[in-house]
Amino acid sequence: MEKKKKSMMKRSLGGLLKARRLEQKLTLQELAEKAELSAAFLSQAERGKATPSIVSLINIARALGTDIHYFISPPVPAELVSKASDPQYLNIDSPITYRVLNASIPNQQMSALLMDIPPGVELPTVHRDEGEDIFYIIKGRVEQMIDDKVFSLQAGDCVHMNTQLGHNIVNKSRGTATILWVGTPVLLPAG
What we know:
single chain; 191 residues
């Protein structure tokens, strides 16, 4: 059992290492030079075939623009759950209420928000160079513009789109519209 645990930790460390390296758009050789380690060793570490020492892990973390806690601090299980009794909100000056649904976990790939949009409020047209968005209408009636097309959406409707397309949403309801948004890449900073 102990051997299996150690193997799982190595794969987890290797997966985090590779994901962060790719996120930083670094080759193994580039990371090796920055961390003052060999590319062969880093390749083995990514595949779970080698385990870096603490000093090596600190150098790798610095080279990847993070700290050692990225690799060795597992998420606290209680922080993985968003409880209705203790909601977390974005503190921004907006008529829209944004409840944060995602946790801050290592190697996070997406963000999630629950948006309450007052009647008549329009979100500005946006686009991002890369990523995907999913909008699920929980309550209300909205119009969503995607590129130059307008879609009338109501509770139960869903949109899944590439973020390179310009898009916005207008609440056409008499009451508050509630939308679940999930998107990539991560938009909200960890912490």
